Amino acid sequence: MDIKEYIASGILEAYIFDTLSPQERAEVEALVVQYPELRDELNAIEAGLEDIAMATAIQAPSHLKANIMAAIGGEDEGQLVGNVSQEAPKVIPMPQTNTGVWKYLVAASVALAVVSSYMAYDYRLKWKSSSDAFAQLQAQNSQMAEQYNQVNNRLDELVADIDVISNADFKRVNMAAVDASQSFAASVYWNAKTDEAYLNIQNLKTLTEEQQYQLWAIVDGKPVDMGVFDFDVEGLIKMKSIKNAAMFAVTIEPKGGSVNPTLDLMQVAGAV
Predict the structure, then answer these.
(1) Is residue 240, in this structure, part of any structural domain at all?
(2) Radius of gyration of the chain from Cα atoms?
């Protein structure tokens, strides 16, 4: 939390002048307990307002109390004036104070406090609105950046796929459905010089979470594992390298693959 920015928002002044909602007041009181800086600032504001009130107060003349007591006959007049004289007290005219000026000063102080409170409250609302808008903009920018990275990564993958497909050293081996009534299809791009192999899925059925597809190469009449893959993978899938492949086939196996292919669950196959 930025303490300085929170203080500058004027919410503490709004709290003192009781212009906050109950929820906002509770929030301020909780933060004041949590942050000593806020408590000190709140005390300083209250002390400043008290100083203004004291500065605008009118101090009574020092002899006023004695004159009042003499008027009600509570004590001997000579005693009331400090036993200085037993004679009748002299009538001392009270000095004329410019009460009109003080009234205007007090009114001006109150008006200034009200205006300051309103400006602080208005500033706080604008600050809060700006903060919310900025946070929303940051979230939108983060989302756009993530989407851009995803698109950029996908473009890189497409470029790499095109490089494989357009490379004359890669031979495309089409694998058709073993069951002629099905439309399953896939293909392998195999480079006999580098032994690299990439799988491309055209159409394979959806599997359960406990199943995966597994690619096999037939080498010297024996199946060789080339790796497992999921049914919903897009683009070219890099598989295990293989030498001297004569055929490729895909079977359905338990998740993680099998040591030997499940022949009755073979989906597609194709000769090199």
Answers:
(1) yes
(2) 45
